Amino acid sequence: MKKIKKILISQPESTDKSPYIDLANKYNVKIDFKPFIQVESVPLKDFRKQKIEIVAHTAVIFNARTAVDHFFRICEESRISVPETMKYFCMSEAIALYLQKYIVYRKRKIFFGDGSLTSLITLTTVSKHRNDKFFLVLADSYKPEVPKSLEKAKLKITRAILYRTVATDLSALNIAEYDIIAFFSPMEIKSLQSNFPDYAQGDTLFATFGPATAKAVKAAKFTLSIEAPKPEIPSMSKALDLFLKNNSQ
Question: Counting CB atoms within 10 angstroms of each CB, which of 45, 151, 186, 223 has the fewest?
C-alpha cells in the first residue's frame, strides 16, 4: 500500500474536539476539511408556490437542525406566529433541544426519538397524535423513505421543501493532492463530478459513510476502499483509524 500523507474530509471542521485531530497526530497525516455541499434557503416566493398553509397544521416534524432553522425562517418571513399549541416531533433529542433557539422549550409539546425513523413513526402514530396534521420540513434532496413511511402509517402529512442542497465551488481545491477523500452523502459525489467533470480517481482512495453514499460512489464508477458504518466500525474516524493502522504495518 502507498503511504497516506493527506486526507480530505468533505465536511466542515467540527468546532468540538475532533477525533480527526487525534488521527492526524497518531499517524502523522495531514487532514483537511472542505464541505462539498452547502444549504441554500428556499425563497419565500418559491415556498408560497407550494401553496401550503403552516397554521393549518397542528404538528411539525424535524429530522435535522437545519430543518428547524428554515422552518422558523419561513415563519418569520411570512410573518406567521406559530401557535403555542403546535406540537414538535424531532428525530433525536439533539434536534429537540435545538428548538430552544426559537421557542420556550418547557412551554411547548415536544417529542423526540432515538435518531431512527422507526422511533419517529412510533412517536407520531400513538392514538393521541394520529389525527394531527403534520408539516414535514424537507430539503429538495430528501430521502423518500421518511415521508413514505409516515404516509404508510396513515398520517396526514404535508411535504414542504424549505431548503436546498447545492454543490460548493471547489475550483480552488487541488483535488489530486489527496490520498484519501471521505464522503458522507450522495450529493457530495455529484459535487465532485460537477466541480471536476474530467476527474480521474487514479490511486486516490475513497471512503464513505452510509449505504447510500457507498452506492453513489459505485454508480459513478469509482472504486470504494473504506466503508462505514459497520458493527465494528461505527464512525468515519474509526474506519480511517483502522485503515491507517493496517496501512502502517
Answer: 45
